[in-house]
Specification:
Layout (H helix, E strand, L loop, with lengths): L4 E8 L5 H14 L3 E8 L1 H6 L11 E4 L4 H6 L12 H10 L9 E2 L2 E2 L2 E4 L3 E5 L1 H6 L8 H9 L3 E2 L4 H14 L14 H15 L11 H10 L5 E6 L15 E3 L18 E5 L6 H12 L1 H10 L7 H4 L2 H6 L3 H11 L10 H15 L5 H16 L10
Parallel strand pairs: 1-2, 1-3, 8-9
Antiparallel strand pairs: 3-11, 4-5, 6-11, 7-9, 7-10
């Protein structure tokens, strides 16, 4: 008897991420005798920012997000999936992934991962608390600030989240973040973005600077402290019946002014990559296709708690009902989300840039000094790694 093929994978630690992979691995094993797939997990912060060069030698499959593309290919940590997959499979994924999910993993003519999970910053709220206060869901910045001053609004302001809020505002104010190798954006736009974030966060508890989107969602569903979250990466689980003590509703982002375009958030979500150290890469790639397929995404994956990237799930009324209207409520925001920078040195900028912004918004440091620091950190990140992998 031949020995079974053993694949190991690393994901991140939440009900949106881990159970769907366990469920898909179980089903794949059942239909592919002789294959065994074991998933491990790490924290959300480790997922986003811990260097993946430590993971590639240990795991065959890596759940990854698109800003790692330049670093991963420069260091030869993952296999380019383009030559490993049949054209029909690639075309299916490219045509039917929501928004820019598939495009975000295409880098320098290569494919980092197959999208399996879609997320973007969106608003969430407790309808019962807004109704009790006689308020409606904010649609503009002025309404958002007014709700914050009533101590009813919150955002996650953990370092990386804060940096991505800042990038979102920079884009809303008319600049393309990180397009200039010398500065993140024109100084007057960066300054205005910080001023807006200060206006919104000043009435909020200082604890927000330690909270990520999961911690905010847990707080909103376990207590009555906050009625509305202005923007955070989405977790449809909190809109499902029975997942938390109280349910959240999710909807699209606000506008800066009445009748102005809605803000566009920085794309989140995850893809499944195959490590360059994987010996059974054909099976690993086939399993990734299985997880990313429309049939699995709208059934097994979403029913196990996932947040699929395939339009088959976003179009499915049963999935939308299961998730409390999440897919219909956030679809526009998801489709409009923009791709973050993917150059080799970018990922640490999210952490370090967010810490600098915390110095201004939490600690009261001079904003001009913080803006100088942000641009210095950005220039430093652009000088890290090989020039051929430093393109956005």
């Amino acid at each position: 008897m031949s020995r079974p093929v053993q694949l190991t994978g690393i994901a991140w630690d939440h009900s949106r991420a881990f159970p769907p992979l366990v469920a898909t691995a179980q089903r794949y094993e059942e239909t592919h005798p002789g294959v065994r797939i074991r998933w491990d997990k790490r924290t959300l912060d480790e997922f986003g920012h811990a260097p993946i060069d430590r993971l590639a030698p240990k795991f065959d499959l890596i759940v990854i997000d698109h800003p790692w593309a330049g670093f991963a290919f420069e260091k030869n940590l993952v296999r380019d999936l383009k030559p490993l997959l049949l054209p029909d499979a690639l075309n299916e994924c490219a045509r039917h992934s929501i928004g820019a999910a598939f495009e975000s993993y295409c880098y320098a003519g290569r494919l980092l991962a197959l999208p399996i999970d879609a997320a973007a910053p969106a608003a969430s709220w407790r309808g019962d608390l807004l109704e009790r206060a006689g308020l409606s869901v904010p649609a503009t910045w002025t309404e958002a600030v007014a709700l914050a001053r009533r101590k009813l609004a919150v955002i996650p302001a953990f370092n990386a989240d804060l940096f991505l809020h800042f990038v979102m505002l920079v884009k809303a104010l008319g600049a393309e973040p990180c397009a200039d190798p010398e500065k993140i954006a024109p100084r007057e736009i960066m300054r205005r973005a910080v001023e807006l974030l200060r206006e919104l966060t000043e009435p909020m508890p200082r604890a927000i600077f330690d909270w990520n989107p999961i911690q905010v969602a847990e707080r909103m569903t376990a207590t009555d402290d906050f009625a509305w979250n202005a923007f955070a990466y989405t977790y449809n689980n909190y809109a499902r019946a029975g997942f938390a003590p109280r349910r959240l509703r999710f909807g699209n982002l606000i506008s800066l002014e009445p009748n102005a375009p809605r803000w566009r958030g920085a794309l989140g979500g995850t893809g499944m990559a195959v490590s360059s150290h994987c010996r059974n890469w054909e099976i690993a790639a086939d399993y990734a296709c299985f997880v990313a397929s429309g049939t699995v995404q709208k059934t097994l994956y979403v029913h196990a708690g996932g947040q699929p990237s395939h339009r088959a799930a976003w179009d499915d009324s049963l999935a939308d009902t299961l998730c409390g209207g999440f897919f219909s409520g956030t679809r526009t925001t998801q489709e409009e989300a923009f791709i973050r920078p993917r150059y080799s040195g970018y990922v640490p900028l999210q952490t370090n840039g967010g810490k600098a912004l915390q110095e201004a918004l939490r600690d009261g440091r001079d904003a001009e000094a913080v803006l100088e620091k942000l641009d210095a950190l950005y220039r430093e990140s652009c000088q890290t790694g090989s020039p051929s992998f430093q393109a956005n």
